[in-house]
Amino acid sequence: MLWNTRRHNLWIMLELVVITIVSWAIIDPLFVLKYNQSIPGGYDADGLYRLELVRNLTDTISVPLRDYERIMEELRNYRDIESATCVLRGAYPSSPGNNVSFVYKDTMKVPMSYIPFFPHSSFFQTWRFCSAKDGTWETLENTKFTSGTILMTEDAAKLLSNNKGDLVGKRVYGPDSAEMRVVGLVKPVKMRNSMQPYLIRFVPWLDKMPDWAFKHSVRIFFRTKSGVSEKHFMEEFMPWIDDHLVSGSLVFSKLAPFHLVQSESDIQEGVTNEIRMKYVLAYFFIINLLLAVSGTFWFHTRTRREEIGIRLSYGASPRGIYWMLIREAFVMTTVAVLIGCFLYFQWAYFEGLYKLNDNIPGNDNLYITNYFFYHFIIVTFIVYVLMLIVTWLGVYIPAHTISRISPVEILKDE
Amino acid sequence: MIKKYLGQAIHLLRQNPLFSTFYIVATGLAISMVMILVIIYYIKIADIYPEIYRTRMAIAPTAHMQDIKDHSLNNTWRYSSDFIRKCFSSLKGTEAVSAVKDAESWLVKVNGVKRPFSVWVKATDPEFWKIFGFSFVQGKPFTDADFQSGMHVAVVSEDMARRIFGEIEIVGRHMELNYVDYRVCGVVKSPSYVTKVSYAEVWLPYSSIPSYTIQGASDGDILGPFQAVFLLPSALNIREVRAGVDEYVRKFNEQNQDGSFLLMHGQPYLYWKTLFYTEDMKDLDFLKIFKQIGLWLCMLLLVPALNLSGMISSCMEHRLPEMGVRKAFGATGKQLFSQIMWENLLLTCFGGVLGLLLSFGIILFAKDWLLTILDGGMQSLSDLTQMSLTADMLFSPILFLVTFMVCIVLNVCSALIPAYVTLKKEIVYSLNKQK
Q: Based on the domain organization, do B293 and B406 belong to the same domain?
């Protein structure tokens, strides 16, 4: 039947093929970004806040280190705050900027990000980075750190040990051949919300807060107690800031719940604009497809009134007519998707599928989007389902309308 | 004759309301998408307050230093004020050259309020006010003397003046920026964030900030936090300026044999070219950029064109008997083709008007994120950042002309093949189609 009416269906088929190709180009990035966002972050963003303090250069009397220690104690004693910690060198998940250096073991050379932290300062309690051994932050918080010891994320250890993963107690070498001993493994951590986890080493800072840390701004992270709502906390905490953080050598600059810090990071990485752009294009092409399918099928059903009338008079049910038209649309969509995906495959095979950033220090073997075959199949399936849904929506009204008309009426007109 | 075709087209429009509605809506949608893209680029390129000289502005945005021995070691940032003064300020073929730092968030303290709030501050020099056409509602810009003495003076936008002081007559009053006292010397009409190069809420001389005037942040006095903005007598002067820059950089690299050399990658660029500047360590590849934009424009027009072609093709099937009768009575293929194209052009123009209005509506409704959607990664904006639109950004003869051209292109793309295929059929075949 479709082959007999191929001339009528030529335009709609062409459009279905083109929209398949375009849908692929739009859905591929959305799939990768959403998949990356669904990977656990390795920390708990709920109840986590970032407090930024700036150096007040006009205050030459106060000592920044003392002000810092006072502020940290006051924060830890605040009634709704469970724990507080500080970060050094601006290295934390969703921070702007990157630092990457190589770590070596035997013949393996792996790029890793680096997060310095103060041991036993509630760093793991505040962030909820968990041990790969038993899944708790307490294990990491209670680990003994000495000079030259580090923690490493589990995926980094796997890569460095050639997938054996048993690096605890073993030695690895950093930049300038600095020897480091791995004393524990941490569950994978995402440094960017929309990227896959980075390979990270956590390096303990065994001295007190250095003077250079107070040069520009200090970033403190704290966690509120369980059950404290964000709205309530912000309303109560801001007046506290007005009393405690507006004088001295370190003064208030910004306070943000961590989910806003993640949103800021997504904006800076261009992820937010990428997702918005793809959604806008997706809606545009889907609406075009809907109009094309509706318009074309509306005309076709008008042309086939006589045929439909004869079928109805010979005993075909309206439901049967409806499903006949829907099946025709689905067959056309299936053929168009196969052709479109085949054409896109030719391009994707040489150019590669979508990746947000090629330069991240990550373990590519762990995530499905890094395997060409699986990635291609999944996105093809999503495109196919989407096209079927849109086609069904476009055909529904013309098919439903023509199937309900009385055969007497049709045949009388014809 | 054309009047007759248009009359017939209106009659057909009334006869087939559903087809006409589909056609106009599909056309409107296609044109609205293309026009949104065009409007966004127009706003970024056209002369809009305060960047009223964009057509003769040039920018050198980033410096790229590469190790002489190991080319895999690279440093990129912006330029130091010292380098801008030595290399760019003395060039022939420029009217003004300014060092402009990216706007950053500072704290401002308001009397009677304990907690400071954030404002966008831009550090620059007196030449900035010659390059950008800011309207001063009070006072005047900081002068060369203020700049040379490192005076703590500031120009404030009208909106920020009202927010800090509650009024705009504030010249001579003082405020604390990052806990440092500044005197207000001028108040300007508030710009919109769409004019990103000049946008801020407070402008200061960078000489008032000691860390910005350190000679050479790194890499042989080149790298620093400023981009160089040029005002040229005309866009054609860019070649002379570029030649001057290349000569200076060549001499600099010859003298600097044991460190890094500076790669300019064709800078400075005319303002419109900086829209496509994304990679600090590569030359601008226009072929690649236009291919990408061209591909997306093609898709935005091709898909609706196929859509409309399908509809026109189906409609033409029903009009085959009419065409047959008219051919039998002596109408030529050219006359019939012309009629079909004019009829479709009328519908396309209706769709074009709908599309343009829709695009204005979408841009007004979603301006907070839509106008920066092509910017890739960017700074996170506060809720108070002005993303205002003015009439001159939307109601421009160029935009209307572009809309009309897009209508014509869409009309030709969608109607050409169905009309040609239909009119190729013989009279007898066409007449036999009638039942």
A: yes
Domain end point (choices B266, B296, B311): B266
Residues B71 and B32 in one domain: no
Give backbone dihedrals phi and psi of B259, rounded to 5 degrees, phi first: -135, -115
DSSP SS3 for B275: helix
Determine the pLDDT at residue B215: 44
Helix A6-38 vs helix A271-303: crossing angle, to nearest 10:
160
Q: What is the pLDDT of residues B306-364, one digit of tens each?
A: 888 888 887 787 777 888 888 888 888 888 888 888 888 888 888 888 998 999 999 98
**B316 Cβ under 8 Å from any chain A Cβ:** no
CA distances from residue B295 to A174, A192, A338, B290, B291 in whole angstroms, order as listed? 46, 30, 22, 8, 6
Both B254 and B118 in one domain: the answer is yes
Taking residue A34's Cβ as centre, other Cβ atoms within 10 Å add up to 12
Evaluate whether residue B348 is within a structural domain: yes
Q: Which member of B114, B179, B380 has the closest CB to residue A268?
A: B380
Total tally of structural domains belonging to chain B: 2
Q: Same structural domain for residues B35 and B75? A: no
Q: Where are the domains of chain A?
A: 6-39+270-413, 48-267
Contact B377 A270 (CB under 8 A): yes
Nearest residue in chain B measured CA to CA from A264: B380
B66, B37: one domain? no
Give the global pTM: 0.84
Q: Is B223 exposed, middle or buried (0-12, 13-18, 19+ CB in 10 A)?
A: buried
Question: Taking CB atoms and an 8 Å limit, are A296 and B314 in contact across chains?
Answer: yes
pLDDT tens, residue by residue, A140-171? 999 999 999 999 999 999 988 888 767 899 99
Number of A/B CB contacts below 8 angstroms equals 115
Those of residues 135-194 in B touching chain A at CB distance below 8 A are 178-180
The residue segments making up the domain with residue B130 are 62-266
Tokens 């609706």 -> residue? B304
Domain annotation covers residue B198: yes
User: Does B33 contact chain A (CB < 8 Å)?
Assistant: yes
Query: Which two structure tokens, joined as six digits, stand for A45?
Result: 């963003």
Query: Is residue B220 located within the same domain as residue B305?
Result: no
Least confident of A62-71, A394-403, B375-384, B393-402: B375-384
How near does any CA of chain B get to the CA of A197, in Å? 20
Q: By CA distance, what is B33's nearest residue in A?
A: A284
pLDDT for B212: 67
Task: For the beta carbon of residue A302, count every other beta carbon within 10 angstroms.
Answer: 12
Give yes or no: residues B128 and B163 share one domain: yes
SS (H, E, C) A325-373: HHHHHHHHHHHHHHHHHHHHHHHHHHHCCCCCCCCCCCCHHHCHHHCHH
Averaged pLDDT score across all residues of chain A: 88
Q: Tokens 């409309």 appear where?
A: B308
Residue B265 confidence (pLDDT) above 60: yes
Q: Are B217 and B44 in contact (CB under 8 A)?
A: no
In chain B, positions 80-139, which contact chain A (CB-CB < 8 Å)? 105, 107, 114-116, 118
Does B306 lie in the same domain as B186? Answer: no
CA neighbor of B291 nearest in space, from A13, A351, A292: A351
| Contact at CB, A295 and B310, closer than 8 angstroms | yes
List, for residues B247-261, the tens digit of each pLDDT value.
999 998 888 766 788
Across the beta sheet with A250-257, the strand order is A81-87, A217-224, A48-55, A250-257
**Residues of B in Cβ contact (< 8 Å) with A299:** 19, 311, 314-315, 317
Q: Is residue B57 part of a domain?
A: no
Whether residues A295 and B180 touch (CB distance < 8 A) is answered with no
Q: Would the CB atoms of A292 and B299 count as touching at under 8 Å? A: no
- Which residues from chain A sit within 8 angstroms of residue B380, using beta carbons? 263-264, 267-268
Confidence of residue A356 (pLDDT cuts 50, 70, 90): low
